[in-house]
Amino acid sequence: MKSSLFRTPRRPKKPLNNQKDPVGVYCRVRPLGGGDEECCIEVISSTTIQLHAPEGFKVNRNGEYKETQYSFKKVFGVSVSQVELFEHVARPLVDDLIHGKNGLLFTYGVTGSGKTFTMTGSPGQGGLLPRSLDMIFNSIGPYQAKRYVFKTDDKNGMEIQCEVDALLERQRRENNLSVPKTPSSRQRIDPEIVDMITTEEACKADGVDEDSSYSVFVSYIEIYNNYIYDLLEETQEEAVKPKWNGGGTPVRQNTEFIPPQSKILREDQNHNMYVAGCMEVEVKSAEEAFQVFWRGQKKRKVANTRLNRESSRSHSVFIIKLAQAPLDADGDNVLQDKNQVNVSQLCLVDLAGSERTGRTGAEGTRIREAGLFAQSEDVNQSFLMVVCVNPKGEDYEETLASSFYRPICGLTPGRRHKNQRRAPVETGKILPPLPSCELTDPSDDVTLPRLIEALHNRQRIRQTIIEEYNRAANTMKSLLQELDSNLISKENFIHEQNGKLIEKDKLIQNNMAEIERLEKKTKMQEHKMDILQKTTKIYEEDKRTLQQELETREHRLQRELSDKRRLEQRMHGVVSDTQHKWEKECQTTTPVRPLHRRSRSAGAEKWVDHKPNSSLDLGTVLQPVIPNSIQVSAPNEKALSKCDRYVLTHQEVASDGEVQTKLIKGEVIKTRGGGQAVQFTDIETLKQELTTVPSRKRKSSEGVSPSGDQQEGDWTDVETRCSVAVEMRAGSNMGPGYEHHGITKRRKP
C-alpha cells in the first residue's frame, strides 16, 4: 500500500507569493506521571530540545553521556494548553480548508507519549480534532446547504441536487430507518466525549464567502496489518434490523459474525488517491461529526503490548471533506453547475506507536505496522506533524531512536440577502384615487355605479402594471442570464486560451529542454573531438619518434653486421694460426688428455644431471660440465639411488630480456622408508650479457689505458666477453643470492 492515500490534490505549479510554508514539524512534551520518574528531555528554547541519557545508560567511548539536540518549528512544553496548541498548529489548516485548500496533520510518537490526547483530548480539554470541527461549523453554520443537496459519487467526485430531489431523498432515507428516532435519542451524547470544548474557547474563520453554500462530509478509515478498513461501515450485526416489541424495546437476532472487508486504493480522474467504497457521512454540526468519529473510534483494533494495554497498534485517518458551491443569481438556491463545486479536505492522522517491535512485544502480522509510513513517504507531500515525546528515562532509547479556492465570477456579491433588501412597490402613487362614496339619499343611483366603475378601472390598471412588471422582470432576468451566459462563455474561452497557453508553455519548455540537451551533447562531442585531436597529435609524435628510433637501430644493426663480418674474418685468421701452432706442438710432444673447466659444484661425488627436454642450447663458450654424472630428462628412483648429489638445469628469461641458466644443486638423502629425498643447498646462475656502448667503433684488444682500466673496446672483443662468468650463491651481497665473478682469460704470450 502506498502513502499516496494521504496526498492532497494537485496544487498549481506557481504558488502565490504570500503562501505559507506547507511543511512544519512541531514537538510536544508531555508531563511526567510521578515525582520519582527520571526526566531525560530538557526544553532549551522555543524551537530546540535536548536529550540527556538517564543513569545506567551506555556511555560513549570517551566515558561521557551522550547528549543530543533536536530543532523543530516550535516546541510546546509541559505547560502548554490544548487551546494554545490548536491556535499554532491546526487553526491555520482549518482556515485553509474553509478557503478551499487542503491540509494534512500527523501525530507521531512512541506509545504513551500523548498522541491520542493531542488529537482527541478529554472532556473539558478537547484535542485538535474536536476543536477543528467546532471551528468549521462555527464559520459555515449559517451558510450550510440542506442535507443531500451535495451528494458524493463513487469516484471521489461531488454532485449537486435540486431542492426537490434532496427533499425526496431525505424522505426516502428517513422511511428506510429501522429504528424510530425520538427527540431524546437524537440529543443523546456519549458521556466520554461530552463538553469537549467550552463556549469561551469557540473560534471561527474570517473572510467566509456568504454567497456560497457549504456541506461537510466525514469518513474514518483504519490501516491495520497492511489493509485498509472502513470504521464507519456497518458490520453484519449492526446491519440486521431488530424486531421491536410493543413496548418499544428492540429484540436482537442471533447472527454469525463476518469480519470486515478490506478496501481498495484507487486514483480518480485528477490523479488523486482515494479509498473506493469508503462511507462518507454528511454532518451538520460539530457534535454530530464527533459522534461519528467516536463511533468509529470504538472499532479500532487494539493490541496488548507491554507498554500500554490500550495503545492502538493501527493507524487511523479521519478525513473532513468540505464542499462549497456558489448561489444562483437570485441568491436562493445552489447554482446547478457541477464544475463550480470546490472540494477541499483535511486529513487528521493518528499514527501507531513508533517504538521498536522488540520492546512492545508485538509479533506476527503486527510487526510490519510500525515501519509502514517510514517506508513510503512522498517527498512532494505537504503536511504538518506533531511529534509527541515522553520525558521518562525509560523511553530515552525510543525517543532517540490540491487545488486553491476558485472565486466565482459573473454573479453579484451579496445575493443571499438581496431579497431581504428589496423595497416594496408603492402602488398608491400610480393608481387613480377613489371617488367619494358617501351616500346622502337612499334613492342615489350614481355614487355606487361610479364607485364600481372606479374599482374596475383600478383593477385594470393594477393588472396592466403587474403585466408590465412581469415583462420587465422577465426581460431583466433574460438580460442577466444572457450576461451570465456571455460571461461564462468568455470565461470558458479564457480558460480554453489559458489551456492552449499552458500547452504552448509546455511545448516551449520541452523545446528548451531539447535544445539544452542538444547543446550538452554538442559540447560533449566537441570535448571528445578535442581529446581525439590531442590523442592524434600524441600518436603522430610517437610515430615520428619510433620512426627515428627505427632508423637509428637500422643504422646500428648495419654497423654491427659489418663489425661482425670483420670480427669473423679476424677470428678465422686467429683460429687458423692457433690450429697450426697446436698441430706443431702436438707433433713434438706426447699427447695429453684435455682438461675441461669445471663449475664450482663439480666434485668427487656422483651426480644426477637433470636437464629437461625444454632446455635450449645457447651456444655460449662457457658450458657447465659435470663429470661422473648420470644425465636424465626426468628424475627417477633408480638414478637417485646410485648418486650422492643432484643438479637441475633451469632456464628462464631475466628482466633485461636475456635467457639465464640456473643450476639448482642439492644432496640426495636416504629416507627411513628406503626411498631417497633431495635437499637443495645451492643455486648457481649462468647469464649471457650483451654489453652495448654509445660508440660501436672497435678498438684493439691490446690497447690499455695508462690507468690500467679497460676501455670500451675491451667489451667488444670476443675473448673479453667470453672471459666473464656470472655465478649466484646463497648469501651473496649482490642481492638475494647473487654473486658476480669476472675472470680475465690469460693471454697467450
TrEMBL record:
Domain Kinesin motor: 22-371
Ranges that cross the membrane: none
Localization terms from the record: Cytoplasm, Cytoskeleton, Spindle
GO cellular component: Flemming body; mitotic spindle; nucleus; spindle microtubule
SUPFAM superfamilies reported in the protein's UniProt record: P-loop containing nucleoside triphosphate hydrolases
SMART domains in alphabetical order: KISc
GO molecular function annotation: ATP binding; microtubule binding; plus-end-directed microtubule motor activity
Name of the molecule in the record: Kinesin-like protein
Organism: Oryzias sinensis
